[in-house]
Specification:
CATH architecture of the largest domain: 3-Layer(aba) Sandwich
CATH topology of the largest domain: Rossmann fold
Strand content: 5-15%
Bound molecules: nicotinamide-adenine-dinucleotide
Distance between the termini: 12 Å
Order of helices and strands: EHHHEHHHEHEHHEHEHEHHHEEEHEHH
């Protein structure tokens, strides 16, 4: 057995602050959900940290603790919420408008939700064309706004006597930005902040503030944001874990469940057509071609990596892949995602798979936010910094160390996540090698 260094994990003592730039559907469904679970009004289904177990050692040992009993995670009771938005609505009003959770549930936790009021946002309509809001910081450079965000964070920490914090971007998807020279080093990025460089989007200003303060940062949208060398450098300097991008929920979740199965059985793929209708504010923002482009890039990348057309050209070389998102207001947050998958098998005979996933976007995203908060806080206490590839499980476009390809297969991602937890605690990695061989060759 390979020997790993022992990792010292600081205990999850005290209060944990969660900062969300963006307090719309996802953020309020997460916040209201945590408060509801705390009060016994609901269960945290969909959350690995709350429901999941982890097998340790050999199957004969029957050691399968809950993940939250295996690694020291913050308790839900110790979580405090703060965030920014371009609308002044408190978390109760915003959750009502988002229309995800029922009013009867929200009314039972109304006093708690009403105390959560956003701070003024760093916002520029240039980067999210479909939105207009006036609850924004004004009169400064991008550098000044970064300082203001840090002041908001400091005030939040002092007022609530917080021991640790985590930031998760739950804001709208910004326009597609390519990596630019200004992103290449921390020095050029900080100069760019002072000079109001156009390649520095508002989301980067929040991420900069967090990473500068050593606060773990996860990006729930496909925006470039922290996936640039300047942030890798800053994260190293301040020992900050980074993760992203774009929560893996509805259709892409399904894609990364089904594609590995097709490949496992060596079934070929001729085409995969995916279309969605959704009617929430996210859908409206994505109706703008420039924001959709950011999302499209994120959604398209998964199949190529999973199917490896270079290794299996006959099966996967020229499959046609198309993803559409259509804004359709009557559905609100209840998205419908259709997939038509044209596959072929033995002797090239064609077959079809149709998926009609009637999902609820924010219901799928909220437990991801919770898990990321708890695991990013754990990563920080375990001394991990920089890109946290073991959290790829949660993202459509996982950030990877430069030069490495992202892993999209949900099952490999889960194995990586659980093996990282085993590694943290000095437990043996699970190889799934059959017991007979193991005994025989011992
Ligand atoms: N729900 C899902 O399944 C899912 C999956 C993957 C990614 N996402 C992403 O998560 C993000 C949030 O989704 P949502 O459904 O909550 O959207 P939403 O529109 O309900 O909420 C986003 C909020 O961010 C605010 N905002 C925009 N720019 C901001 C800024 N610069 N500073 C502060 N606030 C800002 C908006 O005013 C809005 O209230 C989106 O980017 C979405 O693409 C969601």
């Amino acid at each position: 057995m390979e020997e790993y260094p022992k990792i010292e994990i600081a205990p999850a003592k005290g209060k944990l602050g969660v900062l969300t730039p963006g307090m719309g559907a996802v953020a309020t469904t997460f916040i209201a959900g945590v408060i509801a679970v705390r009060k016994g009004l609901g269960s945290p289904y969909g959350s690995l940290t709350q429901m999941g177990t982890i097998r340790l050692g050999k199957r004969t040992e029957h050691r399968t603790p809950l993940i939250k009993d295996f690694v020291p995670l913050a308790e839900l009771d110790d979580i405090y919420f703060g965030g920014w938005d371009i609308f002044e609505d408190n978390a109760y009003q915003s959750a009502l408008k988002a229309g995800v959770l029922e009013k009867t549930l929200l009314d039972q936790i109304r006093p708690e939700l009403e105390t959560i009021r956003p701070w003024k946002a760093v916002f520029d309509k240039q980067y999210v064309k479909k939105l207009d809001g006036d609850f924004v910081k004004t009169g400064g450079s991008k550098w000044d706004y970064a300082q203001m965000v840090m002041e908001d964070i400091q005030r939040f920490q002092e007022e609530n006597k917080l021991d640790r914090m985590v930031m998760v971007w739950c804001g709208s998807t910004e326009i597609f930005l390519k990596p630019d020279k200004v992103h290449e080093s921390l020095e050029s990025f900080e100069k760019g902040l002072k000079e109001n460089h156009p390649a520095i989007a508002p989301s980067m200003i929040y991420a900069y503030a967090a990473a500068k303060m050593g606060i773990p940062y996860a990006n729930g949208a496909p925006n470039l944001t922290a996936d640039i060398p300047a942030f890798y450098e800053l994260a190293k300097e301040t020992h900050t874990p980074l993760a992203g991008k774009d929560f893996k929920t509805g259709q892409t979740l399904m894609k990364t469940i089904i594609a590995p199965g097709l490949k496992a059985r060596m079934l070929g793929l001729a085409g995969w057509f995916s279309t969605n209708i959704l009617g929430n504010r996210d859908g409206e923002v994505l109706d703008d071609p420039e924001s959709f482009k950011t999302k499209e890039e994120s959604k398209l990348s998964v199949l190529d990596q999973i199917l490896q057309p270079d290794l299996y050209p006959e099966l996967y070389k020229n499959f046609y892949h198309k993803v559409r998102i259509n804004y359709y207001p009557p559905r609100g947050d209840n998205k419908e995602g259709w997939d038509n998958i044209d596959i072929f098998g033995w002797l090239g005979y064609p077959m079809q798979i149709k998926i009609d996933f009637l999902c609820r976007d924010s219901i799928l995203a909220a437990p991801i936010v919770l898990d990321l908060v708890l695991f990013m806080d754990l990563a920080k206490r375990a001394g991990f910094s920089g890109i946290q590839e073991w959290l790829s499980f949660y993202f459509k476009s996982p950030m990877t160390k430069p030069g490495l390809y992202p892993e999209h297969d949900l099952f490999i991602q889960l194995m990586k996540l659980k093996n990282t937890l085993r590694f943290m605690k000095g437990e043996e990695q699970i190889t799934h090698l059959g017991a007979d061989y193991y005994e025989f060759y011992k």
